[in-house]
Amino acid sequence: MEKFHKLLARQIRKYLGANPPDGENISAFLDAVNDSYAHYEKDRELLDRSSGIAFQELAEAASRLKKEAEMRRAAIQNLKQALETLRSSSEDLEQLEFDESHLVDLAEVIRGQIGKRRQAEEKMAEQNAILIKINAELDRFVYSASHEMRAPLNSIMGLIGLTRNEKDKEVANGYLALMERSISKLDRFTQAIIEYSKNSRMDLRIREINFKELVDEILDEIYIYQDIKAIKLETKFDLNGPFYSDADRIKLALSNLVRNAVQYADLRREKPFVNIQVAKNSWCTEICVEDNGRGIPTEHLPNIFKMFFRVANDRPGSGMGLYIVKETVDILEGEVAVESQPGIGSRFLVKIPDLGKYMPGAQPATVS
C-alpha cells in the first residue's frame, strides 16, 4: 500500500479492505490509477506555481501602470503650467488650447518656446556683459580723460602767467614753445578721442582694399606730422587676388601701429627701422609692423591694449593708440598679437579675415 498515492491508498482501504485481492490485472489497474494521481499532483503543482508567477507579474505590471499613470498626470499638469506661463508672455500661444490627445505636439511647441526664451536670455546676458564693459570703460575714460586734458591746460595756464610777466623776449619765446608743446599734446589726445568715438559708432563699410595705396597714405601723413628722416621705413607686399574689408578701420589700426613704432624708435641706434609687411593667404590678410626700437618690458605686455595705458611717459602719446588698434581689429573679426623685448624691438602681427561675405555680390578672396 505504501507504493500507492495516499489518496488511492485511502480508497483501496475503504472499498477493498486492508488486504486487497492480488492479481496481475488488478495490480496493473492499480498502478495505472496511481500514475494518474501522481500526474494530477504534478500538474496541480505546476498550475499553482504558474498561477503564482502570473499573479506576481500582473501585480508588478499593475504597479508599473499605476506609476506611469501618475507620471502622465504629473507631466500633463506640468505641461498645463508651462503653457499658462508661456501664454502670459507670448502672444503666439494665446490661442493655443490644451489637448491631451496631442500632447507630443504640444510638448514640441512648448520646447520650441523654451528654446526661444533661452536664446533671448542668452542674448540679454551678452548685452549685459557688453553694457558692463562699456560702463567700466566709461568710468575709466572719464577719470583718465579729465587728467589727460587738465594736465596740459594747467601747464598752459601757468606758462601764460609767466609769459605775461617776462621781459626777456628769448625766455618768453621759450615759454611759448612749451605752450605749443602742451597744445600739441592736447590736440593729439583730442584726435585720439575722436578716432575712438568714430570707430565705436561707425558701421562697417566693406569694399576691396588696395593695401599699397592705404600704406602710402599713412606714411605721407606721418611724414607731415613727425620728423622721421633718421628712421628707415620699408614696406613689403605679398598679395594675391582681391581682399574685402573696412578700409577706414584698417587704416586706423595700421596708422596707430606705425605711429607707435616711430614714436618709440631708438634713435641712438646706427640704423633704426620700421618694417611694414602685408601678406594675404587663403582666409585672411596678415599685417606685420616690426621695429628695432626701445621695446616693451615683459611685465607690461598684458596691459598694452588697455585704455590710457602708457609704457613710458617720456614720449608724447595719449595712451589710446594700441587700445584703438585692439578695438578696431575686434570689430573686423580679426586678432592682434605682439612680441617685444626691451632694447631689441617689437613686432605686432594683425590677422584680418576677408569680410566679402558681408558685401552683396562680392566673393571672398581665394588662393589658386
Identify the CATH homologous superfamily of the largest domain.
Histidine kinase-like ATPase, C-terminal domain
* Widest sheet: strand ordering: 2-4-5-7-6
Q: What CATH first level of the largest domain would be assigned?
A: Alpha Beta
Give a short account of the largest sheet.
Answer: 5 strands, mixed
Shape: rod-shaped
Tally of discrete structural domains: 3
Question: What's the tally of helices?
Answer: 7
Secondary structure: number of strands: 7
Question: What is the string of SSEs from the N terminus onward?
Answer: HHHHEHEEHEEHEE
Radius of gyration: 46 Å
Fraction of residues in helices? Answer: 55-70%
User: Do you know the CATH topology of the largest domain?
Assistant: Heat Shock Protein 90
Average of per-residue pLDDT values:
78
Q: Are there runs of 5+ residues with pLDDT below 50, and where?
A: 362-368
Beta-strand portion reads 5-15%
Give a brief outline of the structure:
The protein is 59% helix and 12% strand.
